[in-house]
Amino acid sequence: MNSSLQIPLDLPNVRLLSSSYDAQGNFILEVESSLSFTKCRCCGHKITEFHGYDRPIRLRHLPILGRDVWIEIRPKRYRCRHCEGDPTTTQTLEWYDPRSPHTRAFEDWLLKMLGNSTVMDVSRRCGVSYGEVEGVLKRRVSTQVDWSGFKQLRTLGIDEIALKKGHKHYAAIISSLDDHDRPQVLAVLPDRLKETVAAFLRSIPEHLQTTVCWACCDMNEGFANAVQETLPKVAIVVDRFHVAQYYNREVDNFRKQTLQELKQTLSADTYATCKGTLWLFRHHYWSLTAEQRGQLEEFLLLAPELKDAWLLRHELNLLFEQEQTKAQAQQQLQDWKAKVKASGLACFDKFLNLLETWQDGITNYFEDRNTSGFVEGMNNKLKVIKRRCYGLLDVKRFFQHIQGDLAFSRKQPA
Ligand SMILES: [Zn+2]
Predict the structure, then answer these.
(1) How far is the CA of 93 from the centre of ligand 1 (A)?
(2) Are the CB atoms for 325 and 361 separated by under 8 Å?
(3) Where does the Transposase IS204/IS1001/IS1096/IS1165 helix-turn-helix domain start and stop, copy by copy (predicted)?
């Protein structure tokens, strides 16, 4: 039986000269270029006068059957007769970067591994140093958006993210969909100030600025003002999850307060069962089982005001789930506000204030519910990347990490 196997090297324009193992059992593949010319580094002419070989270089390549693979090549040099002093130029081949100790294929592999992982992890699993993985990121992933990937922008997502745990250092993140409807990060800005965001929006090429229809953000006046100043025709869409977060927090606080009051009047046993209803209380009613609904209702019977608050919150949740026009949603919100006022509850006061300012943006969600969806997905992705990279990040590197992640961990279309 034949126990050897031919594997294509997948390196264009080379001939394999020899293959051997080193003392550690790694493959050493000696290759030479099959091209007999290069471009002069001074004048750019194609030059063919062979001058000699450089010293051999070793480049890490994709592992084969669990062994590390090193490609050894002696770069060729060519002389130019067009230029004064007849300078020589070293030939380079497309499958490696002269500044890198790896082949491009190996770097692609590292970047792919970096999707959903950390630099530390990749360094350990792939047997390369931390600095080398960082070097690949620096060389291969841009720190700025390449506008040529966009014919239109349509929706911008603007969000903020705390760069370091416990520090009040926030970066603003601007995202959009590219021409293939894939989420892309356009910028990670060093702070979340209005001026910083406005400066970035102004830096968007003019032909793309005119294609923006929506800016999706949370209820942050700085972001909204930056958009209104620089792109006055663009409508603000308030991210519905930020809205829900806001009113949920208020109702949760009201629940806490109610429980403290119940503690005075209820028996220890009954109080204990009430305390256990937090999850049921927060969850969407429509996703609870019959038994869970029963438990929740029993609890709410003990606290009629909390029940009213819960019902009003439930109505808001339903409002956002419904397919409806902006005008219909506006009307529903008006009705809802009237009900809150009639109920005499104070727990929605802050939220009612917020609606005064943001109702238009909040209901714009109904005009464009499909395209604002990517902003939610992007925000979740960013949180995961951030968690993996805590403490290591400046904004440029964060941008590179996101770019690398989006580009290399993307599922191939089926
Ligand atoms: Zn020349």
Answers:
(1) 19
(2) no
(3) 92-141
